[in-house]
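Fold sample X.
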Amino acid sequence: MEATALAAIDMHVHVEQDSHGCYSLDDELMDASAAYFKSSAHRTPTLAHIADHYRARHMAAVVFTVDATASTGHPALSSEEIADQAAAHPDVLIPFGSVDPHAGQAAIRHARRLVTEHGVRGFKFHPSLQAFQPNDIRHYPLYETLAELGVPALFHTGQTGIGAGLPGGRGIKLRYSDPMLLDDVAADFPGLTIIMAHPSVPWQDAAISIATHKANVYIDLSGWSPKYFPPQLVRAADSFLKHKVLFGSDFPVLTPDRWLADFAELPIKDEVRPLVLKQNAARILRLGVSDHDGSGPRRHV
């Protein structure tokens, strides 16, 4: 992938349907999510559709599913299939994998195979949906493996549209997605790149604090239209966190077109926008692009 030819890199794109017609969530959770996001567009695009969507916009997309088999009982989409199909679209798709933390040593073996045999470039976790506490030391061997493999871990943080509006939220607990739980992980695994996904409402200040304090922690800005970003997040992204925030849409529930149109209206400096839209992500993903912003030495990755 030639990053210099890209307009942007979307760090947060869900694969909701595989080539066999299977879905990432059961019907009740899928419908609740669509209602929460008021998603009337194509809610379950295939990987080929995603590739076409982003190629038409000269963007790259980090694509993934979430393996929540243990907590939901719903079979996960295959991360192997996602990675292998993404390999047919190397100009626009960057595959992340997903493993179920409850699987223990099997998750570790699975993660290693996904990287070494299928070219996965990182991993997505959703603590609330997967029903695990990220700083539980039982999951530390998995993080150690990801750090050894040199791939980032992307964690959902804050509230979630999955289960929203259902009785008891379908048993999904928001507290597992408190970003402060990731502060322990970041401190204990300084060699692991951690990306906190979404404005972390209601814990936004905690997320900003962690990303400021921990060199290995970043924030992706997916899941919310930028016009609804908390003001302190906009100020941080435009200043002291300008090298630590990443464009992400949460496609298909929020399109990159909508996100970018609203981002254009934010009070963000012109020299900061390329960092958010592409250069910070390119550095994390080790794509070939300079992230020079005029304030320091030029670095190439």
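Fold sample Y, listed below.
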Amino acid sequence: MHSDIVDLRSFYASPLGRLTERSISMALSSIWAPVPNERLVGLGYALPWLERFGADAERVFAFMPATQGAVVWPAQGKAATALVFEEELPLMESSVDRMLLVHSLEHVENPRETLNEIWRVLSPAGRVVIVVPNRRGVWARFEHTPFGTGRPYSRSQLGELLRETNFTPAAWSDALFFPPSRRKFVMQLNSVLERSGRILWPIFSGVIAVEAQKRLYQGIPVAQRASRRVFVPVLSPQGAPSLGMRFAGSSRFGDAETGIVQPDGGSAAT
């Protein structure tokens, strides 16, 4: 289950959230290669980084899962957000150059189907950048941050998942080496702990970031999807069709309990 959009906005507006955004931005900067005339899509809650890394892109969209909720973005100009299902993105094949997943993959119902759908919409030279909670890190163990919910990953687990879905991991990075504490004196030591953590305890980072390239030379086996969403209108009356069929059957063939038959069906039971 995704974190609620209200909780995500509140977290990144807090002092701890701003430090989190800066740490992840540094990790993404080390693996983010420039792409001319890039078509960039963020999936999950990637707004803080779309504003930073999408400034030179041709077009930028923010896709937000239906279970999370969406907000209008950007504040000025035309809205570029959409409410989507991760397994059925409203994009044509090979229409996107890069996708950024933050607060997304750890919450999806079926990670393989989601990555297969991302593979479909990426261009032949497309790239996907994923940020997920680190299974070994401290941040995955505290639920007062968005990284304390969902399914955390290790590097080996994430790399295996990408290879199974026809992606090749190209570059790795880490972030959030400081503890997820709201205490002021701990946050003041953020820079020192971040630099020290990269040297002393790199495997215990809070999140893992990876850039993977779309792989074209391997065939994709045809398989039936494991899940399929069924859309039901909210205001549709439930049970009305079956109830109507029951009354229609009774009027024509009679009541099975009383044995009474209508005139067009013959005489009544004795």
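Sample Y note: The radius of gyration is 25 Å.
Also: Residues 159 and 169 are 7 Å apart (CA to CA).
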